[in-house]
Amino acid sequence: MKQWFKYGFAGLLVALSFQLSAQCWVSMLVNGIHTDTVEICPGDSVDLSFIGECVLINNNFNNGQLGGDWHYVTPGFVFQGPCDTASEVVCVWFGEESPVQRSLETEDLDLTSGATLSFSLKYGLQNDPPSCEGPDEMLEGVSLQYSTDQGITWTDIVYFCPDGSFLPTNPMVQSPLTYTPTQFTDWANYSFLLPPPALTPTTRLRWMQGYCSYFNNHFDDNWGIDNVKITREFSQDINWSTGETVVSSVVVNPVQTTTYYVYILGGGNIPDTLAIDSVMILVHDIPQPQLSGNMAFCTGETTTISAGGNFTYLWSTGDTGNTVTFSPETTTNYNLIATDDIGCTGTVPFTLTVYPLPTIDITNDTVCVGETATLSASGGLSYLWSNAQSGPVIQVDPADTTLYTVTVTDLHGCSNTAVASVMIIQPPSTALPADTAVCYGDMIEITAQGGEQYAWNTGAQSDRIVVSPLVQTTYIVTVTDHHGCQNTSAITVFVSPEMTVRIYASLDTICRGSEMVLNADGAALFQWSTGDLTPSINVQPGYTTAYYVTATSPFMDILCSNTQEFTLNVRECSTLFFPNAIVPKGYNNLFKPVGDFSTIYGYSLRIFDRWGKMVFETKQADSGWDGTFDGDFLPAGVYLYQVHYVKSVTHESFDKLGTVTIVE
């Protein structure tokens, strides 16, 4: 808040008749300062308060008179304290001529609004001369008392004990004796807020010494009173012109020049006014300078703004003076603070609008060699291209990749520049393997490179194809890159004649141990599964065996092969056979094998009865069993035989279990 004060003291004193005459005064304070005029700025608040008092008694006795404030004083007092001749203090002093009980008593006072009592007090010093000798016993001090029944009864407020303490009442005892230097021997001011029981319309106050010594025809224990002041509370009688009452301060916020008053009222209305004071608050106008200059412009430009009027200026940029140059990059809000001669400020907000340069959207183009390219731009009202064409869309057909510049201007006149490009794409470089040869019936994988899409004359759509041509064939692929540009390539596959390979032999089945000649034809080179490399081979298999031959013939720069299979069966041409029954006493009376015994070795034959007992054994193949055991014929029934022998050629081992029946 800016305020300008014209200092003065405008308190007005008005006296009313109480039971004792009272004088009141009040002085307004503006923010704690005495003034009658203050200048403020609009919107500022002012704290109004006051100082003042209503005085019932204010007596320093300097004129050597008691005045009309006092109801009674003990005779023999003097106005010039004999102990203060050097300082010439004028007071009410009770000395050697004042008997007990010594007292100074006021008239009846109206203290219903509350009261504060202040006074100065001094005791004479112990062992001083008679006129100054002070109290030294517990009961020789002075009591401050009040009475609400015209002095009939008195109530203690405080007792000034000679030892320097404050007691609620006089103990009226001599001991303990102080016998030390008396306290309260220097003038000092004491202040007491009177207790609630003392706040009546008829209250008397007194200072009273109830006991003192009488020695050698004079009274001792001297003391004095000075600067007696009794003020009553008046805050409950305060009224403001703003309508508030009682309160000690108000806050005002005037919008125009206004005079405010504070009153001390005796009866609650203007005729009963005890005291009044006022202050005029002058409200200044808010400084409002006018701005001039270009408030809107394009990015990258500057503007100068000026302010009119006779003020002190502070711009939100920190600049001072009435003219400032701005160059914001974006739309920005600013403030100008104008201050007048008393410090009132006015804020002028303003906005500098910065139009952004047009944002240009460019569409570039990529075309294959020989095609026409289209370039487009957007974001403005007018377009000018570096090739002198205008409009948002142009068509060009450069021979090589080329850059084009376009300048775009929007509705605010702001311009911006962008660059568009036309990229010329060469046809894709297709890559296929060289012409090649394959054997009849074989497959070959052909892979193309150089693009993103592939189209073969076979209908395939991938970069790889697997083919198995039976005759010479040319394969063509069209390759398309990511720009859509195309190129074509071809490969020829040569195919060898079909190869026929044959294996033949005089027989396809032989006896075990026999040899056989296998012959192959239909090619230049042969390789058998036996490892032989000749067209004919001799074999002697011990069991049925499949033989393979791979025949190879050259074709162009490759070798073509074919494999043929021939199975040679092997059978057993010498086998032993056993009968299943004998008649010991008849025609078929001997059990033995039938066959070629020359092709076996290691022969053994054993026969067992039904309980597992061996009844016959031989190692001669031509020796048989006649159905006896130990020379006796065995009973008819079924017997078990076990035979073992080894083949001479293959060394195969044969074991056989069988049964033979004895028939009677």
Question: What is the gist of this entry?
Answer:
The protein has 664 residues and is an all-beta fold. The model is unreliable at 1-21 (pLDDT under 50).
What key phrases describe this protein's structure?
664 residues, mainly beta, Immunoglobulin-like, Jelly Rolls, 7 domains, 6-stranded antiparallel beta sheet, 0% helix, elongated
Give the arrangement of secondary structure elements:
Blueprint: E1 3-6, E2 14-16, E3 22-30, E4 33-34, E5 37-40, E6 46-59, E7 70-73, E8 78-80, E9 90-94, E10 102-106, E11 115-123, E12 142-147, E13 155-160, E14 166-167, E15 188-193, E16 204-209, E17 214-215, E18 218-219, E19 223-232, E20 238-240, E21 249-252, E22 258-265, E23 273-283, E24 291-292, E25 296-298, E26 303-307, E27 312-315, E28 323-326, E29 332-339, E30 345-355, E31 361-363, E32 365-368, E33 373-378, E34 382-385, E35 393-396, E36 402-409, E37 415-425, E38 436-438, E39 444-447, E40 453-456, E41 464-467, E42 473-480, E43 486-495, E44 502-504, E45 509-511, E46 516-521, E47 525-528, E48 536-539, E49 545-555, E50 558-571, E51 581-582, E52 600-608, E53 614-618, E54 628-629, E55 632-633, E56 637-647, E57 653-662
Describe the protein's architecture and organization.
This protein has 664 residues and is mostly beta strands. The chain has 7 domains: 3-56 and 235-283, Immunoglobulin-like (Sandwich), CATH 2.60.40; 59-230, Sandwich (Jelly Rolls); 291-355, Sandwich (Immunoglobulin-like), CATH 2.60.40; 364-425, Sandwich (Immunoglobulin-like); 436-495, no CATH class; 502-571, Immunoglobulins (Immunoglobulin-like, Sandwich), CATH 2.60.40; 581-662, Immunoglobulin-like, CATH 2.60.40. Helix content is 0%, strand content 49%. It is built from no helices and 57 strands. Strands 2, 3, 4, 6, 8, 9, 11, 15, 19 and 21 form a 10-stranded antiparallel beta sheet that branches. Strands 7-10-16-12-13-14 form a 6-stranded antiparallel beta sheet, with no helix packed on it. It has a 5-stranded mixed beta sheet with strand order 1-5-23-22-20, with no helix packed on it. A hairpin with a 2-residue loop joins β3 (22-30) and β4. The termini are far apart.
